[in-house]
Structure formats: structure tokens, C-alpha cells
Design brief:
Length: 260
Amino acid sequence: MLKGKTALVTGSTSGIGLGIACALAGQGCNLVLNGFGDAAEIEALRQRIAEQEGVEVRYSGADLSKPEEIAAMVAEAEAAFGGLDILVNNAGIQHTDPVEAFPPERWDAVIAINLTGVFHCIRAALPGMRERGWGRIVNIASAHGLVASVNKSAYVAAKHGVVGLTKVVALETAEADITCNAICPGWVLTPLVKQQIEARAEKEGIPVAQAEHDLLCEKQPSKAFATVEQIGALAVFLCGPAAAQITGTTHSIDGGWTAQ
């Protein structure tokens, strides 16, 4: 469905970003992966996706807290593939603490990656999309882009900001055959969430399985994790022809979390 398109997925060396990248590659997209990790493991990942899906896959180690590296990453993608058609802003970090105990440097880091980095990626990618008359932007927000939880002030603020930014970009590109939408996952068993579960288990002195169950019961009525494959399939849909008139919207995939 998307054969020959080029997609850049930030934070795509693991978790949700990797699931989305694999889904897009499965539809014929060439890829630019981005994220941190062991260099040898990332290279093996790049080769595996390329060989399995028959697409070209490149990797950029751009630090999304640095606007100049974001601009260079987008420029390199456009030079290598002749354009950037799909941008998926997925990279994110987390820190939890009450507001009065929240370290200012952690606030700055979460906002820089989770919100400001999204702005700079879109700003860099939009001119080329406008020039070619087609583009799809998918921002991975969160259930926390729609509702709040305690001890997550920076993350909630950033994800609410992503939802607002999504709407503005959609309005500004509404006549340009460019869409901009946000996916708002609930709990997904990614490495980031596994770390939270393990930390909770240690803090409360309970088994990891119990911490996982308790986490789901607090927020997600389905009591089941969403999967990276489900989120990847939704991202593919939003990039496809059936979604050409869907823009500026949020799409929850949260087992009923935000229906409460």
C-alpha cells in the first residue's frame, strides 16, 4: 500500500517505534531508524528488516534533544531517498516524581525529547512534504496526552502538548494532502513500561507479575496490554488512502482507559 514511500520513525530501535517501523516496512516503505542502543545490535536489526521486507533501511543516531541533529537527520533522509513522505514521532523518555520533588533537569529533558523534539522533526520535514504535495505525520502521544496521572507532570504536560501541536499542524496543512494525527496508547509492554513495573515490584516488595497486574487494573479496563503490532497497524492505516481525510485527531488504543 505504501510501496516506495520513505518513513522516518524516531525512537525505533525498540518498543513501539520498532513495531511501527516494521509495520511500515511490511507495506513497502523504505525506512530511517533512529534511537539509542548497542551499535552492533542496531546494525543487525537494520539488516534484518531490510532483508525480510525487501526495502532499504538506514539508521540515524541523531539526538532528539539537539535541533541541529534533527535537521541533519531529515536532510540526510531526503538526500538518500529523494524525499521524506512519512514522519512518525515516537521517541520518548519518562521520569516520575511529585511536582515539588521533580528535578528541574529531568523536567527539561522530558520536555526536550517528548515535545520539543517533535516540533523540530515536523518543522524540518514539512517543507519537503509541501514541495512534493503529500505527507503523513503520526505523533505517538499517550493516554497521558488526554488524561493525567500523579507523579508524571513532565510527561503529561509534554504529551498534552503533542496533542495540541498535532491539531495545529493538521489545520495548517489541511489543503496540502498532508495529514497529522496522534496515536494515544495506554499501557504497552515496552522496555520503558517493563522498567516501571520492575521498579514498582521492588518498591512494594511484590512479584513482578503482581506489579504488572496491579498496574493494568489501576488504569486499563481490559486488563490487557496493547501490543506494538496493534499500534503499528493503526499507524499504517493513518498513512494509507482510507485515512486521507482523517487529520488533527487522536486515536486511543488503551483498553478503555480514557473511556472512564
